[in-house]
Structure formats: structure tokens, C-alpha cells
Design goal:
D-Maltodextrin-Binding Protein, domain 2; disordered C terminus; 2 domains; globular; 25% strand; alpha/beta; eight-stranded mixed beta sheet; 259 residues
Length: 259
């Protein structure tokens, strides 16, 4: 009886703790390596691992993923479908969406990739007109003035639009496209996974765009940018944020390395 009473008290304390945690819904769309298949039972990438680490770190907030799409995400934030969305760059057009923002000081980039051929060098990337481009549908590209309209990209850049970086890179290898534009952190992981394919690729020194990642919070969010920044700082003091970002070929923000 005593044991059963202790077990009941322990279970009750866990339940009360969970009830006390403020739920925080985080929007997520397929954006590797940040999020892969957020609608699945086991989404992967930087974001799911970050949220799991934050949930293990503290009990004030309970973070969960809410799937959205690349084209719908800002409308979903404004409508309150979720409370915040991470890894958004200012060039991607969210300024007219009511929000508050936190600069994460996490950067990334997109680079041009072509098939390596004899005599082909960095000058190949100087001119994109007349080349077949393999692009990720819904992404904003610097060379196109961040216009993500499918018809515009097809008509002006002979673009083939897919939902997979891997597919775009395979199109190069199979000579179905001339240039793909790939997120640099994803490309580095791809090269690690497929060294035999990597040798066949020419990667540009020219950058199409730099990501300047922010977290966007809906206006009614109970989690403030300041509180979220404090959670990230606490996570990094435990050494977890640094390790996570490096695992995905991202740099830890310098300001978060300070206590």
C-alpha cells in the first residue's frame, strides 16, 4: 500500500508538472536540413532536435511541431495556427505579417552547383540565363529578386521546380539540369553521405544569398522573444546548442556562447 501510494504521488506530480507547462506550437515545413517531413511520426532535422532539447531542459514551456507549408506558413502564423516559426530570413517576405522577431544570429547560405567537367571553372556560374536551373519549389532565390512565383521562374530561368535537394542534384548528374541552387548546410551533409557523387560536382564560390535566421512570434504569443533567447542561452551553457548546430554544419551564435 505504501509503495502504491508513493507511485500514485509520483505520477500525480508528473501530471501536474505537465499541466503547468505552457504549450508552445512551432510551425514547421519541409526545409532540410532544418526540418525533414514535419508531418511524419518522426520528423528529423535541426528544429525537432532543438525543441526536444528545450523540452528536456525546462518545464515552463512544452514545445511541439505544427506542420505547415512553404507557401502558407506566414498566413498560418498570423491566424494563430502556431505561436512561432524559426529559421526565417528577412528577404523571404514576412515583414507585412504581424509579428515580433528575434535575430538568432545563425547564418547559412545557398550556393550554385553544376556538374564538374573538363575545362569548366567558377566562370560557369557568372551567367545563369540560358542554363537549365533545378530549384526547390517555394524557395526565394537571390538571383530572381526573391520572387518565388513558379511561372516567373520557369519563363525567365528555364527552371525545373521540385521538392527535393537530392532530386535536383541527381538531375545534374544525369544531365537533366545545368545548375542547381542548394542550401550550403544541406550540401555539406550530402557530400558527407555521398562522397562518390560529390566528386562529380562543381560548387560555386559565388553565393546566391546568405540566410540571416530569425524566429518569428505571433503577436499574441505568451512566449516572448526575450524569454526564448534566455532558453537558447541556457541550452548553450549546457553545451547542447553548440553541438547541435555543428552537427548540421551551422555555427553557434557568438552572443549565445556568453554566460
Amino acid at each position: 500500500m505504501v509503495f502504491r501510494g508513493l507511485l500514485l504521488a509520483w505520477a500525480l506530480s508528473i501530471a501536474l508538472s505537465a499541466m503547468a507547462a505552457e504549450p508552445v506550437r512551432v510551425g514547421a515545413y519541409h526545409f532540410p536540413p532544418y526540418v525533414t517531413k514535419p508531418e511524419s511520426a518522426a520528423p528529423a532535422g535541426v528544429l525537432p532536435e532543438l525543441l526536444a532539447a528545450l523540452n528536456n531542459l525546462q518545464s515552463d514551456y512544452q514545445f511541439s511541431l505544427v506542420p505547415t507549408s512553404v507557401t502558407r506558413r506566414y498566413r498560418d502564423l498570423e491566424s494563430g495556427r502556431f505561436d512561432l516559426i524559426l529559421f526565417e530570413s528577412p528577404e523571404w517576405g514576412w515583414q507585412d505579417t504581424p509579428h515580433s522577431a528575434l535575430d538568432l544570429h545563425i547564418s547559412d547560405a545557398e550556393v550554385y552547383v553544376a556538374l564538374a567537367e573538363p575545362g569548366r571553372d567558377q566562370g560557369y556560374f557568372d551567367r545563369l540565363k540560358g542554363k537549365r536551373l533545378a530549384l526547390y519549389n517555394g524557395y526565394h532565390y537571390g538571383f530572381a529578386g526573391f520572387n518565388a512565383n513558379q511561372q516567373f521562374l520557369r519563363e525567365n530561368f528555364s527552371a525545373v521546380l521540385t521538392y527535393s535537394h537530392d532530386s535536383n542534384l541527381l538531375m545534374l548528374i544525369r544531365r537533366r539540369a545545368d545548375i542547381a541552387v542548394i542550401t550550403r548546410s544541406y550540401l555539406q551533409d550530402y557530400q558527407r553521405r555521398y562522397p562518390e557523387r560529390s566528386a562529380a560536382l562543381l560548387v560555386s564560390q559565388r553565393v546566391d544569398q546568405f540566410y540571416r535566421h530569425h524566429a518569428l512570434f505571433r503577436e499574441q504569443s505568451l512566449l516572448t522573444p526575450e524569454a526564448f533567447a534566455a532558453l537558447l542561452q541556457a541550452l548553450n551553457r549546457h553545451g547542447q546548442l553548440d553541438a547541435l548546430l555543428h552537427r548540421y554544419h551551422l555555427a553557434v551564435p557568438e552572443h549565445l556562447m556568453q554566460d
